[in-house]
Write a structure and sequence with these properties.
By secondary structure, the protein is α/β, with parallel strands linked by helices. It has an eight-stranded mixed β-barrel, surrounded by four helices. It has a five-stranded antiparallel β-sheet with strand order 4-3-7-6-5, with helices on both faces. It has a five-stranded mixed β-sheet with strand order 9-10-8-13-14, with helices on both faces. Helix 1 runs antiparallel to helix 9, helix 5 crosses helix 6 and helix 31 packs across helix 34. It is elongated.
């Protein structure tokens, strides 16, 4: 494209400068030659663009390029100096005929552009506009400059084949075609019209120059105009030069109003020319008469074309009106037209049906009065914005239907106030009630818990970010409550019963807060309340503890649900997630401290939480790398001082954490769901050790294995039998121990598991008996083989007579139930003496042996344990006397 620009500049300079240094016919010929080359250069640009997109423009561009080539040839034949000039007949040259061909090709090219819409009679109208303007110019030429030849045909030919006529006709046809071409072609058609206009000015000036001045030599400016106009025609079609900038809307509207008058300018000039000749000394010759008649015929023909097009347009409009009415009458959308204030100027039948207002009463009615009072301000605002120039507004509002119900609708307002055919605001309203209700329900479900209908975690985050962690937020306090042992409720009674418990608990919690929107369920059995004042938060926490301590009615039965409560302040957290985490830490601390209590967050809890996370990760690592170890503590028969069994104890030394004891890592393993895997590992490791001892020729006693309370369920017997079978052991090789805390929540379920264990030939011991979590009736009903008395009773009996009396009562109860007793925590000879006096069968403690690794335990298998020693007989009798006095036995 740079080469094209360079060539155009060179031609423009030559066409302007050369005529300055030449004269007469030479100047005219040089100028015409430069114009011909410029036309060919522009034709090349049109041909080049015809090979590019869009395809719909290709034929039009090719025809126009051919028109330019024909114009260049015509200029060359007539003015550059080809001798002799070919003549068809007197006054008719080949160049003149090519000018006619140029016009015809240009018209074909313009009509080859795709129309931007249906335009009745467009091709005929474009053609008639060009012909009308050409004849008008021909009248002017004939009236003012044509010879008084008695042969009118020759004069008419000269007039119709003149360069001014061709330029004006090309200009008029391009101007007439411009409003109908697509937006993308307006620039090139407009450039064609501008270039043709400049060429026309040059041609008319050239035609006037010689008769007026009597000189053949034209001014350089005139030649430059011819070159410039010819180059603008090519420039208009090159996208790299014009940058594809479409005509602005205002410019195009102005042109659309002005261009239709273009053909009548030559007509007006021709009429003035005829009047000048008629009133002047020159007689009107036959040429002028014939051309004037032809002009009148063209005017009549154009009027006929317009009339025909108008009839076709009216017919099409009537068809469209019928289609529009059928669409409007049958449409479910509500269509209305409003003035600038919002008053209804037209309402479709569907609007009358939807609102229950008769169509005549709709006219002039206030549109806002049909909508909910809460939605009217935004409607008034919308009309104000449309009056101020906004193109469109879309609103979602509630419309009152004919039954008095409010239905959600969506209204789209389009500003057509500046459109002369509308001069109003068009509104299209459609019913979206069902979609809106569904969307609202989905939005509600996103922020609410389906079971309890309380807010959920997302709602709490949003509330905290709005009230607390926004620029104008205020401090709040979080009260987080977690139901105690809720998983055991689900395991014992099923999830459906658990859901009912959660619903009942949520109702109790609602009575503890002032704002129901501040209460939410975070998930599972965890609830949270957002309270503005810390003192109020503590009061809310106390109310929650008190409310859940009172029995709730679930499925017709009274059920007690307790909770652990954590309190955290927003000033101790940077964001909502950190505040929720602090509340969790405080709640977990409440559970660790014994449950059913309230604990406020403290910074030190982060250290405890970090330690728990490290231990949790360490448990995974120990299971993966086999870092757990088994220790064994003998259980002896007190009367004979011989080992009868041993308890399996779990020990763990971690390279990063050091020694971690069971009372620290077992609760963490239970909360993280790792206890089943640990229990399974312990069972298999104990069986493997029994096999190893037997391979050494030793005869190990039955080993007692503690099973987590979380996994004392229907799967336990199968897990134990699988471990025994894997190592080829019988069921008498192991004794299963269950803690009293596992029995207390659901004795019936534990009873079923114990029956299954007994059916498999396994013995069961009740561990930690006496802590007060099980009743005497439960103990009597459960199928147990032994009872282990908690170490706290045995250890304190050595120096506390009351404790000794309690120990005697517990042993007596077990004997009444015919249950053998194992006393844990035997630390000294005094405790052994008391147990022997109480006829307790078995003992376990440091006095007999500390827990030891497998190698040490193997060396002590079948060894006797020293019998209890007493200081002297009197001292023993004194102790027995004190025991009888304390117990009353």
């Amino acid at each position: 494209m740079r080469a094209w620009v360079g060539a155009a500049i060179v031609l423009l300079v030559i066409g302007t400068v050369v005529p300055v240094f030449t004269s007469g016919t030479v100047a005219m010929r040089v100028g015409s030659a430069v114009i011909a080359v410029a036309l060919l250069l522009s034709a090349g640009a049109w041909l080049l663009q015809a090979a590019k997109k869009p395809k719909s423009y290709r034929h039009a561009r090719r025809w126009i390029a051919l028109s330019l080539i024909t114009a260049a040839i015509s200029t060359t034949i007539d003015r550059v100096g080809i001798q002799p000039v070919p003549q068809i007949s007197p006054g008719m040259t080949a160049g003149g005929l090519l000018l006619v061909a140029t016009v015809a090709l240009n018209v074909v090219g313009l009509l080859s552009y795709p129309s931007k819409g249906r335009d009745e009679g467009r091709p005929l109208r474009v053609l008639m506009d060009g012909l009308l303007a050409a004849v008008g110019v021909a009248v002017v030429v004939a009236a003012l400059f044509a010879s008084r030849d008695t042969r009118p045909a020759a004069s008419i030919a000269i007039a119709l084949m003149s360069a001014p006529m061709a330029a004006v006709m090309n200009l008029t046809t391009a101007s007439s075609a411009l409003p109908g071409v697509p937006k993308g072609a307006r620039r090139e058609v407009g450039g064609l019209a501008i270039g043709t206009f400049i060429v026309g000015v040059y041609a008319i000036s050239q035609a006037l120059w010689t008769p007026i001045s009597g000189q053949v030599h034209p001014r350089p400016l005139l030649t430059g105009l011819g070159v410039l106009g010819s180059l603008i025609v090519g420039w208009a079609v090159i996208p790299d030069l014009r940058r594809e900038q479409p005509l602005s809307k205002s410019t195009f509207q102005t042109l659309s109003r002005v261009l239709p008058a273009m053909p009548f300018i030559p007509v007006a000039v021709s009429i003035l020319s005829i009047m000048y000749v008629a009133l002047g000394p020159v007689e009107i010759n036959s040429t002028v008469t014939v051309l004037a008649a032809l002009l009148i015929a063209c005017l009549l023909l154009r009027h006929a074309v317009n009339s025909w097009a108008r009839i076709r347009l009216n017919n099409r409009l009537r068809d469209r009106e019928k289609l529009f009415r059928s669409l409007v009458f049958g449409s479910s959308d509500l269509i209305s037209l409003h003035d600038a204030t919002g008053a209804i100027r037209y309402g479709s039948p569907s609007l009358a049906r939807a609102t229950g207002v008769a169509e005549p009463k709709l006219l002039g009615a206030d549109f806002a009065s049909m909508f909910h009072i809460a939605d009217r301000p935004q409607l008034y605002q919308a009309f104000a914005e449309l009056r101020n120039g906004r193109d469109a507004v879309e609103l979602t509002m509630r419309l009152e239907d004919g039954t008095g119900q409010w239905r959600w609708v969506q209204s789209l307002f389009k500003n057509q106030l500046d459109d002369p055919s509308v001069q109003g605001i068009i509104c299209n309203t459609r019913d979206i009630h069902e979609q809106h209700e569904l969307s609202a329900k989905l939005a509600y479900d996103v922020t609410h818990d389906r079971l309890t209908d309380l807010g959920n975690l997302d709602a709490v985050r949003t509330l905290l970010n709005q009230q607390c962690y926004s620029p104008n937020g205020n401090p709040v306090t979080l009260v987080l409550a977690d139901l105690d042992r809720f998983s055991a409720i689900n395991d014992a009674f099923g999830h459906e019963f658990g859901d009912e418990v959660l619903i009942a608990a949520s109702r109790r919690l609602l009575s503890c807060v002032d704002d129901v929107d501040s209460l939410a369920r975070l998930g599972a059995d965890e609830f949270v309340a957002v309270v503005k004042d810390t003192d109020d938060a503590l009061a809310v926490g106390e109310r929650i503890l008190d409310a859940l301590n009172r029995p709730v009615l679930v499925n017709g039965e009274l059920f007690t649900v307790q909770a652990s409560v954590g309190v955290a302040r927003s000033v101790d957290a940077q964001n909502a997630d950190e505040l929720l985490r602090n509340g969790d830490l405080a709640m977990f601390a409440a559970k660790s401290n014994g449950r059913s209590q309230m604990v406020s967050y403290d910074v030190s809890m982060h250290e405890t939480s970090a330690r728990s996370m490290q231990i949790n990760e360490g448990i995974h690592r120990a299971l993966r790398e086999g870092a757990f170890r088994l220790y064994f503590q003998p259980i002896v028969a007190i009367p004979t001082a011989t080992m009868v069994s041993a308890e399996v104890l779990l020990r763990w030394h971690d390279e990063q954490l050091g020694d971690v004891y069971p009372d620290e890592f077992i609760p963490i393993a239970e909360s993280s769901g790792l206890m089943r895997e640990i229990d399974n590992w312990v069972l298999n490791a104990a069986c493997e050790q029994i096999v190893a001892w037997r391979s050494e020729g030793l005869n190990p006693p039955p080993l007692s294995v503690n099973i987590s309370r979380q996994h004392f369920d229907a799967d336990l017997p199968g897990m134990v039998l699988t471990a025994l079978g894997r190592h080829g052991l019988t069921s008498d090789s192991l004794v299963i121990e269950v803690t009293e805390s596992a029995v207390a929540p659901d004795p019936a379920a534990i009873h079923r598991v114990l029956d299954s264990l007994h059916a498999a030939g396994l013995s069961v011991s009740l561990d930690d008996f006496g802590t007060g979590q099980s009743s005497l009736s439960q103990l009597a009903q459960l199928p147990l083989d032994k009872v282990k008395i908690d170490r706290s009773f045995v250890m304190s009996s050595s120096h506390d007579d009351d404790a000794l009396a309690l120990l005697r009562s517990i042993v007596g109860i077990c004997k009444t139930l015919s249950l053998p007793v194992i006393a844990e925590g035997v630390e000294d000879e005094i405790a052994v003496g008391h147990l022997a006096t109480l006829e307790c069968e078995y003992g376990q403690g440091y006095h007999f042996a500390r827990p030891m690794p497998a190698s040490d335990f193997g060396s002590r298998l079948n060894q006797a344990v020293p019998s209890p020693r007493v200081a002297d007989l009197d001292d023993r009798r004194q102790r027995q006397t004190r025991l009888r006095d304390a117990t009353g036995l």
